């Protein structure tokens, strides 16, 4: 098959290789299979920004629509120093499988800007976001492509995007992005959705294994929107959170960290590092501690061929997108580690994004309790479906989840046919 030099990157090669394997298992016909290997459209933009010191810097930005067979495209926007076209394209493909697996009426998309947001002022970030939005204007819209937060972006980023888009339309268009602040059309429970989804999937995993989460030893990489929320919920449910890390370092207490006290510390210090009542631990060592549940909820490629052998967790729940490389996956499999894959584990975010989009289109907002109940139901059902496929087909959970995700998109292609 033709290769794709446009998207050349490790992550893209992995995403396509995964699709190829799943296509073979599903006995997909050749036409459908090759259509799924390519993104529908991919846009590259340059973003000139006047920096605070008066210089003009030019950043590179991307937005990729992978597939539109099930509906308009959906996916996050990331600001990160490693962003490139190949990575964004691979992540867009993952979004297609994720939305499909969760039964959402969306195809997958992803956007990114190569920058270091921690090193930029709020004004610089606003200029960057507004100019990026203007450059991808024709690519987004409530029934075309709906961005959301991802690594390095947040509610404020979405508010600026929504405002920029709305200004060009001469009216407020809340449905163009999700993950907005509640005041301007965001949904209750969106901020916590990904972390909550992880915990609901874990409840169901424990149930399927005939165990309970109470007393389980947990290690979490990342204490932001995803890791932080999961930590608080698991702690309240009686799990023992032994280790947590963030971009500045990690903390460890084998008796369990007091998460409420840790929250107080982070409010003051801006990082978990230096938390009294715990030992310091590097991010690297944290991943290799023996535990029941490891939640990588930071960035990609954290569990690799060179450290997978030393991972001593029983269950890994992928809060981040792509935290485990395929080589590491194979090693973990031989060690009997249960990996709950990203497309399932972190899908709570896009599920509540869907709720936000629906609420915005109807100008009718639901109570947080409704959001939570519906999220839990969808996560639980998806986990059970993936678990059953994995048992029936004798495959790991990642393969089972991708089989479910790819199959629905392939079926939609077959029903819709090939234009013209
Ligand atoms: N960035 C999140 C993800 O990777 C959420 C995407 C969305 O809500 O559209 O799933």
Descriptive notes:
- The protein has 420 residues and is of the alpha/beta class.
- The mean pLDDT is 97.
- The chain has helices at 10-25, 30-37, 85-101, 122-135, 155-169, 193-208, 227-236, 259-269, 283-287, 326-334, 342-345, 348-362, 368-393, 397-416, and strands at residues 41-50, 56-65, 73-80, 107-114, 145-149, 217-221, 240-246, 249-252, 279-281, 291-296, 313-317, 338-340.
- The radius of gyration is 21 Å and the shape is globular.
- 44% of the residues lie in helices and 18% in strands.
- The strands form 2 sheets. A 7-stranded mixed β-sheet has the order 9-8-7-6-10-11-12, sandwiched between helices. A 5-stranded mixed β-sheet has the order 1-2-4-3-5.
- The protein has 2 domains: 5-171, Leucine Dehydrogenase, chain A, domain 1 (Rossmann fold); 193-336, NAD(P)-binding Rossmann-like Domain (Rossmann fold).
- The site of glutamic acid has 13 residues, from strand 3 and helix 12.
Characteristic terms for this protein:
420 residues, alpha/beta, Rossmann fold, 2 domains, 7-stranded mixed sheet, 5-stranded mixed sheet, 14 helices, globular, binds glutamic acid
What bound compounds does this protein have? glutamic acid
SS elements, strand count: 12
Order of helices and strands: HHEEEHEHEHHEHEEHEHEEHEHHHH
Structural class: alpha/beta
Main β-sheet: number of strands, strand sense, barrel status?
Answer: 7 strands, mixed
Mean pLDDT: 97
* CATH top level label of the largest domain: Alpha Beta
CATH superfamily of the largest domain: Leucine Dehydrogenase, chain A, domain 1
Q: Could you give the order of strands across the largest sheet?
A: 9-8-7-6-10-11-12
At the third CATH level, what is the topology name of the largest domain?
Rossmann fold
How does CATH name the architecture of the largest domain? 3-Layer(aba) Sandwich
Strand percentage lies at: 15-25%
Residue ranges: pLDDT <50 for 5 or more in a row? none
From the spread of the alpha carbons, the general shape counts as: globular
**Tally of individual helices:** 14
How big is the Rg? 21 Å
């Amino acid at each position: 098959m033709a290769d794709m030099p446009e998207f050349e990157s490790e992550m893209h090669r992995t995403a396509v290789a995964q699709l190829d394997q799943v296509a073979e298992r599903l006995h997909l016909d050749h036409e459908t299979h090759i259509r799924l290997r390519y993104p529908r459209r991919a846009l590259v933009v340059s973003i000139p920004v006047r920096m605070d010191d008066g210089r003009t810097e030019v950043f590179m930005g991307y937005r990729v629509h992978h597939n539109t067979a099930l509906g308009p495209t959906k996916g996050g926007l990331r600001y990160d120093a490693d962003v490139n076209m190949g990575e964004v394209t691979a992540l867009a493909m993952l979004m297609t499988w994720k939305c499909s697996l969760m039964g959402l009426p969306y195809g997958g998309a992803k956007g990114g800007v190569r920058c270091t947001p921690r090193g930029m002022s709020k004004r610089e970030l606003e200029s960057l976001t507004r100019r990026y939005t203007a450059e991808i204007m024709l690519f987004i819209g409530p029934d075309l492509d709906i961005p959301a937060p991802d690594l390095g972006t947040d509610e404020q980023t979405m508010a600026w995007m929504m405002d920029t888009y709305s200004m060009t339309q001469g009216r407020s268009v809340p449905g163009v992005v999700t993950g907005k602040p509640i005041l301007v059309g965001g949904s209750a429970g969106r901020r916590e959705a990904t972390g909550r989804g992880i915990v609901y999937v874990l409840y169901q995993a424990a149930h399927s294994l005939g165990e309970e989460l109470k007393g389980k030893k947990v290690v979490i990489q990342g204490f932001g929107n995803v890791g932080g929320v999961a930590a608080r919920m698991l702690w309240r449910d009686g799990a023992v959170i032994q280790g947590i890390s963030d971009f500045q370092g990690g903390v460890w207490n084998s008796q369990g960290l007091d998460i409420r006290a840790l929250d107080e510390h982070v409010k003051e210090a801006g990082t978990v590092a230096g938390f009294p009542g715990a030992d310091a631990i590097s991010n690297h060592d944290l991943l290799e501690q023996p535990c029941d549940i490891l939640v990588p909820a930071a960035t990609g490629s954290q569990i690799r061929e060179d450290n997978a052998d030393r991972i001593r967790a029983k269950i890994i729940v992928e809060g981040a997108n792509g935290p485990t490389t395929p080589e590491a996956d194979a090693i973990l499999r031989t060690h009997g580690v249960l990996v709950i894959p990203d497309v399932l584990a972190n899908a709570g975010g896009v599920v509540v994004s869907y709720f936000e989009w629906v609420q915005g289109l109807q100008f009718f907002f639901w109570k947080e309790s409704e959001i939570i109940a519906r999220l839990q139901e969808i996560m639980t059902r998806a986990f059970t479906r993936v678990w059953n496929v994995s048992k029936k087909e004798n495959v790991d959970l990642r393969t089972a989840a991708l089989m479910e995700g790819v199959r629905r998109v392939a079926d939609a292609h077959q029903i819709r046919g090939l234009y013209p």
